[in-house]
Amino acid sequence: MSDTPQVKKYNTRTFTDRYMPSDELKSMYRGDIEKFLIVPVEEMYKHVHKSVPPSRATNHTFIYLTEGEGYMKIGSDEYRIHQHEMLCVPAGQIFSFEAYDTTKYNKGFLCNFNDSMLAGKFGKIELVNEFEFLNVWGNHSISLGEEISAFVGQLLKRILVEYAKSGLQHIDLVQSYLLALLCEIRQVYLPLFNSRQTAAVKLTNSFKDVLFSNITSKHMVTDYASMLNVTPNHLNKAIKSTTAKSPTRWIDETIVLEAKVLLYQTTLSVNEIASAIGITDPSYFSRLFKKYEGITPLEFRKKIEMS
After folding, report:
1. What pLDDT does residue 17 have?
2. For residue 145, is it left (φ>0), alpha (ψ between -120 and 50) or beta?
3. Which CATH class is domain 9-188?
C-alpha cells in the first residue's frame, strides 16, 4: 500500500542530537558526519542518559572495546562484548540499548560510516558486499583476539588522529585506513554458520535478505519459498538446519521488530500499526506481539514513554 508508514532511519546527526545531546560531543565532529564519524567510546557513551528504543540508522556502526563491557540488542538478539571484541550494526538493522551504566567504565572506539566511504580512489561502493558483517544477516558480534585486536586498535587510533585533525579533508587517507580495518576484521570474522559455502547457508542468507525487505507485505512461508524458487518444505528444512528456528518464527520475530519501531516512532494506534505491517486482524497482532515480548503493544508503548 502506497500510504504505508515507513520505519524512520536516523542519520548520525539526528540520532546523536536526540539521544546524546551535548556541546562537548558536537565539538568532536569534523566535516560531514552523515558520511563518517569516529570518536572514543568513553566520550560518546557518557552522554547516553536514557534508553534508546528500537531504531534504525542510515550508516554502519562499529563499537570496539579495549576495556569494559558493552551491551546492545540487535535485531531479535541481545549482545554483550568485552575487551578485544566488537559489535557491528549494519545500516538498516534494528537496534536498541539501555542507558549508559556509569558503574562500568568502557574504553574503545565508535566508528560510524556510510557505503559511500568505500567508493573513491581505492575502492568502489560494491565493496560492501565483500564484508558479510555489513549485512543485516551477518554475525554482529566479532571476537578479534589479541593479535588482530592490536592491529585494529592501531588503525582506529590512526583514523581518529587524522579525523580529529582534518576531518575528511584527506578522505583518500581515511578511506584507505577504513578498508584496511575492514580487511583485518574479515580475517577473524566467524559467520553465524559453520560454512559459507553450503546450499542451506546460502539459502538462509537469501531468505533473511528478502524477509527484511518484504516483511510489511509478505507473512507466509510460501511467499518466501516462491520468491527464492524452492518448495516451502525445502525452505523450512534449510532454515531450521542453519538457525535452529523455523521460517515462521523468523517471520513472526521480524513482524514484532517492525511493530516495536513503529510503536516508538509514530503516534499510530495499535490497529493502524497492525495494518501498516500487513496484519488485518488487530487482535491477532496483539496476541503475536505479547507472545514474543511478554506485554501488549499498548504496554510496550507506555513503557517507552516512561523511560
Report:
1. 85
2. left
3. mainly beta
